[in-house]
């Protein structure tokens, strides 16, 4: 047990290091140092998540709406400032709750309840990348079905997911809509990241990185720009989801929609629109 406890302390030491790095640069020490470890971790996740949301959102909006105006989107397809401020407001109300999920997952990892390991050197590079691949397949499968059930189960849609689907036209979607969910909706769609920890061994820091990459990915798939990269569930696919409500539930790739019959290709949609 002593060896196990010493090993688990590596996770605690690592999260404490991340807490100090983030919190010491953003807040006076007297505001966070006296807090219990769990609350320090939550505060770090909340501040880091908020910064990531605003930095990625503002940079992406500046690039596609200002620097590349009329290149990727015509002017009349750009969402209004009012729409983007509403999306930011919804996301900020939910952010304290969103960031509870990674905080709880870190606590479970520190307690030894998951299959996470601390150092990449504990496994071969082959097993490291294989575990990431399996982890992402499980996450993709879980998010697909969670998202689909949020549509198919009417009370879940009405009371949770409809908050996100008020943005149902191209000129109401923006990178800031990526986290504009009811708090419970956003947590449910991220839960597969945590469930996968109990199934497949995954490197601790890699798990955290993939979880926080969600903020960047969700900003990307709400910009309405079809990247046309095969197998990637990009913004072109996700825009169709926001306009039809019954296609393209997947997250990173089109595979789950293809397997379960809900895929709608943006290029086919354009052809149909021209035919009409």
Automatic annotation (TrEMBL):
The keyword Nuclease does not apply. It is found in: Membrane. The keyword Membrane applies. GO terms for cellular component: membrane. GO terms for molecular function: C-5 sterol desaturase activity; iron ion binding. One of its GO terms (biological process) is sterol biosynthetic process. Pfam families: FA_hydroxylase. Its main location: membrane. The chain crosses the membrane at residues 46-65, 125-146. Keywords: Membrane, Transmembrane, Transmembrane helix. Residues 133-262 form the Fatty acid hydroxylase domain. Belongs to the sterol desaturase family. This is Fatty acid hydroxylase domain-containing protein.
């Amino acid at each position: 047990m002593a060896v196990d406890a010493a090993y688990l302390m590596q996770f605690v030491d690592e999260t404490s290091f991340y807490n100090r790095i983030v919190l010491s640069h953003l807040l006076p020490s007297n505001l966070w140092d006296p807090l219990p470890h769990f609350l320090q971790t939550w505060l770090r996740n909340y501040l880091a998540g908020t910064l990531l949301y605003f930095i990625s959102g503002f940079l992406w909006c500046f690039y596609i709406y200002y620097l590349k105006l009329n290149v990727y989107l015509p002017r009349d397809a750009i969402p209004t400032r009012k729409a983007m401020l509403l999306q930011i407001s919804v996301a900020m109300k939910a952010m304290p709750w969103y960031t509870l999920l990674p905080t709880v997952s870190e606590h479970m990892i520190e307690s030894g309840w998951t299959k996470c390991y601390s150092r990449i050197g504990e496994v071969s590079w082959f097993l490291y990348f294989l575990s990431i691949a399996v982890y992402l397949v499980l996450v993709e499968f879980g998010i697909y079905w969670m998202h689909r059930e949020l549509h198919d189960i009417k009370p879940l849609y009405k009371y949770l997911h409809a908050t996100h689907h008020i943005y149902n036209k191209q000129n109401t979607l923006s990178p800031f809509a990526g986290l504009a969910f009811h708090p419970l909706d956003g947590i449910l769609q991220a839960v597969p990241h945590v469930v996968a920890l109990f199934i497949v061994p995954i490197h601790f820091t890699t798990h955290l990185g993939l979880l926080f990459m969600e903020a960047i990915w969700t900003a990307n798939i709400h910009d309405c720009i079809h990247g046309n990269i095969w197998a990637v569930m990009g913004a072109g696919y996700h825009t169709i989801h926001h306009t039809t409500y019954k296609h393209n539930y997947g997250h990173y790739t089109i595979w789950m929609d293809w397997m379960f019959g809900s895929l709608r290709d943006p290029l086919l949609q354009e052809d149909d629109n021209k035919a009409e």
